[in-house]
Amino acid sequence: MKPCSLGVAYLFSFITLAVAGSYDYKDALQKSLLFYEAQRSGKLPADQKVTWRHDSALNDKGENGEDLTGGYFDAGDFVKFGFPMAYTTTVLSWGLLDHHKGYETAGSVEECLKAIKWATDYFIKCHVSEYEYYGQVGSGTVDHAYWGRPEDMTMARPAYKITASKPGSDLAAETAAALAAASLVFRSSNATYANILLQHAKQLYDFGYKYRGIFSNSITDSQCCYTSTHYEDELVWGAAWLYRATNDKTYLTYVDALWDSFKNMYGFDWDQKFGGAVVLLAKLTGDSKYSTAITNYCNYVFQQGSRTSKGLIFIYDWGPLRYALNIAYVCLQAADLGINTASYRAEAKKQMDYALGDAGRSYVIGFGNNPPTHAHHRAASCPDKPAVCNWDTYHGSQPNAHVLYGGLVGGPNKSDIFVDDRTDWRHSEVGCDYNACFQSMLAHFVELGY
Ligand SMILES: *[C@@H]1O[C@H](CO)[C@@H](O)[C@H](O)[C@H]1NC(C)=O
Ligand SMILES: *[C@@H]1O[C@H](CO)[C@@H](O)[C@H](O)[C@H]1NC(C)=O
């Protein structure tokens, strides 16, 4: 690991001393929304606040020339991976639906609607016919061989789709979940848009249910980064969201049909939907089989799961903070249903406060005490033009040229150690999916008055 030379003046300009366990969740929420702005691909709107970003990837097209501009760059790279993007959108919509008051208090309702719509407008474009959905634009290997600004990209950006003969039930059902959840979010402000979202959600769900397969076997380029392990969990999760959006009990019969292959799963992340699906079904149906499942899961992770010595739930060494916060968020949802409310809320707050500073530093860029300044993020690392930006920029010890406000980095290793090093992407990268439960949980904390 190379040592990092932090620009001292630069560093101190972002320090706000925080008392352990007492953080400005509202500020973190507002910054997280800025992070999503910084991830925008396509033509940027006039009200874009992250002005070091510019229009990019304006030639993203499907095989027949369909316009596939828009959506989000996945992480520190410029691939548009539909699977984690859909998961992100479902979770952001979930947070806005269930913690609307938190967003109101933070003055961030409009910004969150924009963050969701930036993805849902893109998903609609990608759904080019009933059984054709573009699940990725840009190739992992080709994209990752480039270090520079998104505005300057010249490499080929192939588009990959799922079809009836190359299915992706997980991708289709997660996107259905996102669109169904977003339809609920937009119902009161624009019923026309909500109906369009719901229409696509239903069609995509039927596509996924009818033509079974794992998307990463069909879109093999995604295997660099997002190999999916099952599709039953997305089919359950998607059905739960469609049930919430439609009240159509047919979707619950799908859940019943899938239950045996789903009930012994675990986790909640871009790949695993178990925790989110059971807690949502517990809320929607009141059926004790779902509340038992989420209780057992939360109790297991909170009481027996692996942790660092400073208390972070530690599932995996690639982006550990998001796994901890994802679990904390679904258990916080369980707490809202009256399941071990005080202890689950306390644990969720502990996990969040670890990320915000309790372990001795902030893991959120531009927030709190000693935040990361060397995140693995191509766009933020590049100084404004005409400066050159390339692999030398990547390998340099200088801090990123732009502050990627609100981006949650991967986090520490199992020894609670974090090296603020751009080349250590497992720990220093950011990702759309990393910020999703993080942001929804912040909205919940603001709502709870924490
Ligand atoms: C509502 O959504 C529709 C469909 O996207 C759009 O054409 C229309 O402009 C929207 N209306 C408002 C008031 O934003
Ligand atoms: C954590 O990182 C430090 C510094 O790179 C290293 O010495 C230590 O072995 C790592 N711990 C684990 C569990 O990987």
From TrEMBL:
EC number per UniProt? 3.2.1.4
Coiled-coil positions are none
State the signal peptide span.
1-20
Designated name of the protein: cellulase
Q: Does the keyword Signal apply?
A: yes
What this protein catalyses is: Endohydrolysis of (1->4)-beta-D-glucosidic linkages in cellulose, lichenin and cereal beta-D-glucans
Biological process annotations from GO: cellulose catabolic process
Q: Does the keyword Signal apply?
A: yes
Q: Which UniProt keywords apply?
A: Carbohydrate metabolism, Cellulose degradation, Glycosidase, Hydrolase, Polysaccharide degradation, Signal
Q: Name one GO molecular function term.
A: cellulase activity
SUPFAM superfamilies (alphabetical): Six-hairpin glycosidases (SSF48208)
Q: Which domain of life is it from?
A: Eukaryota
> What is a single Pfam family found in this protein's UniProt entry?
Glyco_hydro_9
Describe the location of the Glycoside hydrolase family domain by residue ranges. 25-442
Q: InterPro entries in the record, alphabetically?
A: 6-hairpin_glycosidase_sf, 6hp_glycosidase-like_sf, Glyco_hydro_9
